[in-house]
Predict the structure.
Amino acid sequence: MSERPRAILLMGPTASGKTDLAIALRAHYPVDLISVDSALIYRGMDIGTAKPDPDTLRRHPHALIDILDPAESYSAWQFVQDATALIEQSHVAGRIPLLVGGTMLYFHALQQGMNRLPESDQALRAELEAQRRSRGLAALHQELERIDPDSALRIRPGDSQRILRALEVYRQTGQPLSQLQSETAEAPAIDFILLRLDAPQRERLHRRIERRFLQMLEQGFEEEVRQLRERGDLHPGLPSMRCVGYRQMWDYLEGNLSRQEMVERAVIATRQLAKRQLTWLRKYPNRGCFDCESLELDAIGHYLDRELSALP
């Protein structure tokens, strides 16, 4: 066994069939499945995240699913620490870690490494949330432009989660987030094999996204969010409740949207997420890329066999 761990990274846009492919590959390779999804980490958020059902998870365990309560937060840095430890455990056991998901920031952080940023301060975050409600998100983005113009340029004005995090880091450290992120970080000593799902026929992916959201509604997505809302300790500013679909359903339950508006906005938001994911994926070399509409396990198997045998 090589001294250096190896790992397969199975990436793709939402609704492209990543989980089904990962499970199919598990029948042919000694892989340990590790989720790379910033929504699947939350317990009680099952339908709207398209989480594999309990029976599937029993038969095909995924690490890093159901590890947090929706009131808690999780960072890319924490993911890198957790995933690196799991990869090492799999390597020591003589198996192959297969990381599957669509949170591209997590994949990027794992491959490139990242500097440790301060842990989230709940009191400071609550203060920033109060300022967002009283002053408005635009005012906070303007504040970020003054103290950290590089981050403000990179973060969309409507991305409240990242705006608040950048302000939080500055208030904790006195240093701009962009400066801390630019400091040299050591990438993990892991050999990565990239396996990417593409969607060259965008309209087909859009139809899959719409069908899946309508299926979520049939499965009880509204009741799932209603129960989360009735807990009393969750609010739309939390990372969990900002997940695609959840924030639109929350607005509907608050009476801010009609049901049709909720459905339309959730589908549009999911399509926009898929577009951002595909933009990330196209930054990678073209090798290991397969059309999600016409997956051929034999072709994927030949590719993986070739890549695995090429590693020391």
